[in-house]
Amino acid sequence: xxxxxxxxxxxxxxxxxxxxxxxxxxxxxxxxxxxxxxxxxxxxxxxxxxxxxxxxxxxxxxxxxxxxxxxxxxxxxxxxxxxxxxxxxxxxxxxxxxxxxxxxxxxxxxxxxxxxxxxxxxxxxxxxxxxxxxxxxxxxxxxxxxxxxxxxxxxxxxxxxxxxxxxxxxxxxxxxxxxxxxxxxxxxxxxxxxxxxxxxxxxxxxxxxxxxxxxxxxxxxxxxxxxxxxxx
Length: 232
Prior knowledge:
Layout: E1 11-14, H1 19-30, E2 35-39, E3 53-56, H2 62-69, E4 74-77, H3 91-107, E5 112-116, H4 134-148, E6 155-161, E7 163-165, E8 172-177, E9 186-188, H5 189-198, E10 208-217, H6 225-228
Helix pairs in contact: 1-5, 2-3, 3-4
């Protein structure tokens, strides 16, 4: 059963067929929010049924990205690289793909940009950077999104989860931090998706970058209160 929509704009989900992206689509549908997905093939979007719009395109293609963001009010990016080299590499997806979507979204009048990043992106010496500099690529993208969507009339929310895991939403008490000070921990993909969706209407989420990990299993009525814990 859908909840009453708290957001009336249309949202483009990039990386929609990935594990976190699928949860983003589910949580948008949960709130009855219109969804468009950017996918590399229409066949990949069939899992979402007829309730979502489908934009077929590659994040490397400027024209396809521009067409995908046209008419959307917000973008949620759950992009993530899947190989070290080529069009699925961190440089082409986590960095350049995110930057391209952010730039075209701004040109198209998109007002809010939310994205999944990662804990430890500011640590160049982190072992994950041995894998084609994936954290470094994410951080460059973060910085670009902050610069483009910090101007008046636009906003951003950047969620930096710990190790992503499967599980239902709202089943853990969460711990949020700022300043990239957490060293370990895991986060349910479903909760990352929920936080991103909440950022569409929660004013406390605007212009925030933060880390989030699970604490103890404890059912939550809502995750909105975690935005109250963030500074500034």
